[in-house]
Structures are given as C-alpha cells and as structure tokens.
Amino acid sequence: MAALAPLSTIAERSDSLGCSARSLKHSQELQGSDFSFYRKRVEGEEIAQVVTPASDRGFLLGISLAPHRRSIFRGRQGAKFEFAPGAIYTRDFSEDYRADLQAPFDFLLVEMPLSWFAAASDELRRRRVAGLATVTGQHDPVLQHLAYALTPALANPDPDSRLFIDQLGVALGTHLLQRYGGAPAPTLRTAPLSRLHEERAKMMLLEKVKGNVSIPEIARECNMSASYFLRAFKASTGHTPHQWLMVQRVEMAQQYLRSTQLTLAEIALACDFYDQSHFSRVFSQVVGSTPGAWRRRLR
C-alpha cells in the first residue's frame, strides 16, 4: 500500500491537468475538433504529484510512451501501478483525482468532453454511451500505435495538423467506445460516397487553406457522422482525406518541378505546404524521393 506524500508541491502552479509546471520537461498541446491532445514528460527521479478536483470536463485517456510507476490515492489510501509502453489509464473527471508519479514519465493524454459522448450516442442510436470503463495499467496496442502517430503532430504542428489529428481522433474515439464504452462495432460494409458527396468533400479539402476545414465539418456537409464519412471516403478514393489532400499537393508540385525553374521554397509556398521542410517530407512520403532528386532525374 502506498504512503501519502506531502502536499508541498500542490500549491505550486499546475496546468489544467494538475501537473506541476516546475516538474514538466516537455508540455505540448494540440486542439482537435472534438478532443484536446497533450504530451507531458518529466525527467529525473523526483516524485511529481497530480491533483485535480472533480469537474464536469468529461474523461481523460492516458497512454504511456515509456516505463512508469504511479500511486493513485482514494482518501489516504493508495495503490501502486506499473505502466509499460502502450499501457493506458482512463479517468472520470467527475471524481477527485490524486496521484504520485514516479518520474520519469512520458504520456500522451486525450481529454474527451461530455458533449462528445452525447454526440456519439446520437450516432449510435441503439445504445447510449455515457462514459468509459475505468482502466489502469492495461496494455492496448491500438491506442499505442495511434499515440506514436500523434506525437510528431504535437511536436511540430502545421496548418494540416488539424485534419490529421481529426482523423486519428475519430479512430481513437471509435476504438474507445467499442472497447471501453460498450458500443457495438459496425456490422455492415461501408458504401462509397455518392458522386455528389465525393465532389463536395474534395472541394472542401482543396479549399481548406482558406478556412482550415475539419473532418466533422465535411461529414456534416455529407449528412453523415465523422466516423462513417472517413470509412466512406477511403472506400471511394483509397485514401484518408489527409492522405488524399497531400497527394493532390504533391501532384501539383510535380508540375512545377517539371515545367518551371522555381526554387523548392517557392514551390512549397505555391502548393500550400507549411514550408520547404514540410514539402520535402510529404513529397518523399508520397513519391519515394526528395523533390530535388526527382527534378534532377527529369534532366
């Protein structure tokens, strides 16, 4: 049984999740359409405390990115838990929470508001999901994979990050509802988008630089849920919306590389990439070589 640690650090300035600002080595945050994503990392061996009073903020998911131990308290009684990489916990914000974190720790955290559960229940229709089962220290390979996919966007956000994290957020939320919320898995194969909906979705994606469109916004235009829209869009195009948009920009960049003498930085700007580094990274992912190497092979 864990002993109750002194409350000395609680008076220090803490962030919205109860983490001591002094202890944090890295603190990153990114806001999606439905969820808030955080990465919190502490190095060293000191004990860091997390304290949050009960509130109506919804639920919190934590995904461990490195080995970690913590003691979680109810009253003055505490229990110790071990977290391997990929181990998760869920927290209901309606309950007081206090934990002593045995540093170092490195977590991806996802805050899910109650409004999202209400909207998800409306989409499910057959079953109301009010929250998630309490889980502590359980390994979840699906959430581990999604966490590793999210960390680069948190470290280096760019204008396309919202579209990307919306897609991962839908996948994460669907998995949580089915595995920890009791929601049924879809049983029918998803049909492709109609031609009208596909054209509308693609037009909104191509125009996103003007308004930073989100997955929920496009899904509403197609009169479907975000999760159904993502499945239907991939059935129609073979890509997620973010992947499809990147392919369109790369194809436009190839035209500039082939027919103009513009520099890579100028092409990156013309094709709505964040900067030349972002352009080179995406181009390499899609084509398999850097823009400069691809252009040289044309000569």
TrEMBL record:
<dbReference type="GO" id="GO:0003700">
    <property type="term" value="F:DNA-binding transcription factor activity"/>
</dbReference>
<dbReference type="InterPro" id="IPR050204">
    <property type="entry name" value="AraC_XylS_family_regulators"/>
</dbReference>
<dbReference type="GO" id="GO:0043565">
    <property type="term" value="F:sequence-specific DNA binding"/>
</dbReference>
<protein>
    <submittedName>
        <fullName>AraC family transcription regulator protein</fullName>
    </submittedName>
</protein>
<dbReference type="Pfam" id="PF12833">
    <property type="entry name" value="HTH_18"/>
</dbReference>
<keyword id="KW-0804">Transcription</keyword>
<dbReference type="InterPro" id="IPR018060">
    <property type="entry name" value="HTH_AraC"/>
</dbReference>
<keyword id="KW-0238">DNA-binding</keyword>
<dbReference type="InterPro" id="IPR009057">
    <property type="entry name" value="Homeodomain-like_sf"/>
</dbReference>
<keyword id="KW-0805">Transcription regulation</keyword>
<feature type="domain" description="HTH araC/xylS-type">
    <location>
        <begin position="199"/>
        <end position="297"/>
    </location>
</feature>
